Amino acid sequence: MRARDYLLINLGLALLAAIFFVASIYVGRGGELLVGKLHAVDETDRSLAWLILKEVRLPRALLGLLVGATLGLTGAALQGLLRNPLAEPGLIGASSGAALGAVLVFYFGLAAGSTIFVPLGGVAGALVSLGVLYLLSGRNPSIVTLILAGVAISAFTSALTSLALSLAASPYAVYEIIFWLLGSFTDRSMDQVRFATPFMALGALLVASTARGLDALTLGEDTAATLGFNQESIKARAVIGTGLAVGAAVSVTGVIGFVGLVVPHLVRPLVGYQPGKLLLPSALAGAAMLLAADLLVRLPMDGPEPKLGVVTSLVGAPFFLWLILRARREAP
């Protein structure tokens, strides 16, 4: 692909994400435009209008942008690293570890102390999961070992999350945990955005730094080593970066699945099959997709708002099954 075409595709995806970002700020329940209402509030009390924008509308839009970009980027990186089109961020246990950490905060009643305790627990859970992953897989692990260790961690942390639900003393705690696990941007504050952003940014930088190494790994691990790429460094940066970024994302929004799986497959026909070139457009497309999904859950006028994680799973699960069926048809 020519550099000019690649640039135009990225600019188009960035424009699409920007459009959905602005729409996320100014579109309310039932698709109602809030520009007129915000203007009316601004004429009577400018500080109140600014407060609504800054503390209610902006955090939701920013989380859609940041979390979507994180999931798209890390999904593309893991598919390149593991050379598996079915790979996604939850595969290494970061998502389930973050979910368990946040659930334990709810379980022990710490969430009532401060809104920041839930994301703290989530990031701590993701980091512990990464530590266990490296203990299980050892130094310079193979791709298969990483996958097996990640699956084991995901299964164990999911079981502990279910145990916490079953042993919760209060039905209100159970409701709060389930409500959070379904994934949503509703009622999030700028404090949570400020807390999670540095972790997501650091994780994204680590993942992005592996672009050339991922391209080399497509030729095989031995060839990549011959070309001078340190395989251990590439794997460590990709896995740690994914753990930090996805752990921080899950810690503030709950579990939002399938974005990291679906987005790289949607973008790959546009930019080609080089994992390194797929990273940036996947991040932009992930942001656009999650912002669009968050607009979709606002369409019902009455009743509770559908949870974002439910909507992405309803879209992602059939796509996942289609990928499996296509892989079976293409198998020799």
Key attributes of the depicted protein:
single chain, 332 residues, mainly alpha, 14 helices, 77% helix
Question: What does this protein look like?
Answer:
This protein is an all-alpha fold. Helices cover 77% and strands 0% of the residues. The chain contains 14 helices and no strands. Helix 5 (117-137) runs antiparallel to helix 11. The longest helix has 37 residues, at 46-82. It starts with a helix and ends with a helix. The model has no long low-confidence stretch (mean pLDDT 85).
What topology emerges from the helices and strands here?
Blueprint: H1 3-26, H2 35-44, H3 46-82, H4 94-107, H5 117-137, H6 143-167, H7 171-181, H8 190-208, H9 211-217, H10 221-226, H11 231-253, H12 259-271, H13 275-296, H14 308-330
